[in-house]
From TrEMBL:
Keywords associated with the record: Copper, Membrane, Metal-binding, Signal, Transmembrane, Transmembrane helix
Record localization: Cell envelope
Organism of provenance: Microbacterium laevaniformans
Record-given protein name: Copper resistance protein C
GO cellular component assignments: cell envelope; periplasmic space; plasma membrane
Composition bias, Low complexity: 134-154
Region Disordered: start-end pairs: 130-155
GO molecular-function terms, A-Z: copper ion binding
C-alpha cells in the first residue's frame, strides 16, 4: 500500500511540475510576440483622390531606430518607385515621403525591427483614383473610402495568443491545482500520524 501512495504522489508531483512549467512558458509567450502594423494613412485598400505627399504607418509598439533597420518601398501599378528620401520613425509612427504621380493601385512594402529585436515586414495596397498629375500636400485628406486595416504581415513568429486560450489555460490550471490540494488534504487526514 505504501508503494502505491509513493508512486501516486510521484506522478502527481510530476503532473503539477509539468502544469506549472507549461503555465510559465505560456505566460512568457506574449513577450515573444512581435510588434505589428495596426493602422495606416492612407489605410489598407483605401481609395484616395490623389497620391498623398506622405504615408504614415502606426505599429503596436515602439520600433527600433537603428541605421538601416527601417525600410519602406512604395510603388505604382507599373512598379515605379514613389518613395522620396528615407523614412522617419517617431516611436510607433513611421512616415515615408512620396513623390511622383500615380493612378491605380499603389503598393507599400515595409520592413521594421520590432521592439524585441526581430525584423517584421509586410505589404498593403491603396488605390489612387485621380489622374497621374495630382498630389495631395501633407495634412489634407482626399480619401473617398476607408476600410479597417487588414495588412498581410510576413513576419516570422506568432502574432499573439487569442484571449480564449488564456482563459481556458487559466481554468485548467486552477482546476488542476484545486484537485491537487483536495487530494493532498484528503491523504493527510487519512494517513495516521507517526
Amino acid at each position: 500500500m505504501s508503494h502505491r501512495v509513493h508512486t501516486f504522489r510521484s506522478v502527481l508531483v510530476g503532473l503539477v511540475a509539468l502544469l506549472l512549467g507549461g503555465l510559465s512558458i505560456a505566460l512568457a509567450s506574449p513577450a515573444w510576440a512581435h510588434d505589428e502594423l495596426i493602422g495606416a494613412d492612407p489605410s489598407v485598400n483605401a481609395d484616395v483622390g490623389a497620391l498623398p505627399a506622405q504615408i504614415t504607418m502606426t505599429f503596436s509598439g515602439v520600433l527600433m531606430d537603428e541605421p538601416g533597420a527601417t525600410q519602406v518601398v512604395v510603388t505604382d501599378a507599373a512598379g515605379a518607385s514613389l518613395t522620396d528620401g528615407e523614412p522617419t520613425l517617431d516611436g510607433t509612427h513611421l512616415t515615408q515621403s512620396l513623390s511622383g504621380s500615380a493612378s491605380g493601385p499603389v503598393t507599400v512594402t515595409w520592413r521594421v525591427v520590432s521592439s524585441d529585436g526581430h525584423p517584421v515586414s509586410g505589404q498593403y495596397t491603396f488605390t489612387v483614383q485621380a489622374g497621374p498629375s495630382q498630389t495631395v500636400p501633407p495634412g489634407e485628406t482626399t480619401t473617398t473610402q476607408t476600410q479597417t486595416l487588414t495588412a498581410t504581415p510576413t513576419s516570422s513568429g506568432d502574432g499573439g495568443v487569442p484571449v480564449f486560450v488564456w482563459v481556458l489555460l487559466g481554468l485548467v490550471v486552477a482546476a488542476a491545482l484545486g484537485a491537487l490540494v483536495a487530494m493532498l488534504l484528503r491523504k493527510s487526514r487519512a494517513t495516521p500520524e507517526d
